[in-house]
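This follows on from our talk about sequence and fold. Go ahead and set the record down below:
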Amino acid sequence: MNCSITDDWTYRGLKTVVLENEVIRATILVDLGAKLHEFIYKPSNRDFMYHHPRVECRTPVFGVNVDNWWTGGMDEAIPTGHPCVYKGEEYPFLGEVWSLAWDYEIQKRTDDEVMVYLRRPLVLSPLIVERWISLRRGEKMLRFRHQVTNIGKVAIEFLWGLHPGFAITPDCRIDLPAGEMLVQESTPDNRLGIAGTRYQWPFAHDLAGREIDMRQIPSPDADTMDFHYATELKDGWLAITDTRRREGVGLVFPKDIFRYAWLWLVYGGWRGIYTAAVEAWTGYPAKLSDAVAAGKYSQLAASECLECESRLVVYTGFGEIEHLNLEGQVIGK
């Protein structure tokens, strides 16, 4: 099959762009923050994106609580993670662009490669986010090129995150090249320690001192929710693998920009949902105001731009991952 791209569709009234080759189908909801709604591996008909069973995709309202609108998929988050007030502005949960419609243009439509360009100015922040998403014939990965530009007259501080919510089963595991981890939340009852507790990936400890392997994903009956930061990321990738079917998905990104990972692991313990959001971020903690106070944030001078590339990669034949790179190469066992 040759590559194809179409914008002839809407989904629940939202403008939709679909990119496709022999093995991958990717669906972008342009009017819903340019969310990557579906990322399907055709040979096994597996969508690696989580879909909230009780929240439908609908036209968002700027500034609302993302918890009541989030449907799953992969979002771009900027200039904050959690809501905060910074320099007099009230920044919304998960930032500004997830709740806005983006402009787009199909820039390439050949048998060998298709590409869509997406653009969104922020409302509160003098930033413009641009994203090029492409798919090539024969490849098991989606290619992203990103650009963030400060169109203001002074320097601006921000957090920027790639926020995928992955579909999981109890056969899945998380692989992450991390060192020290920092607990932000752990429910119920601070089960892995109060906020500020530190541990070495992958082994946390519960209140009884028992070792908990954070790579292993339990059933939704676990009724837990954890939000932790990887503060010592050693390389720019993360992965979710189905160990029984030996297939999985990885996000690859430049570690000099996305220096940290956030793990929002919901195993039934928040609103009954079941997903692992393992995310690449430029700073922490989740509130921009706190990240600036901690010195863990990004900054652009007036008229300065930040460019980088990332990949969403499908792999098969592995039960655990040791390394991924931007060319889609996988090392594992």
User: Anything to note?
Assistant: The chain has one domain: 4-332. The radius of gyration is 19 Å. Residues 288-294 form the longest helix (7 residues). The chain has a mean pLDDT of 97.
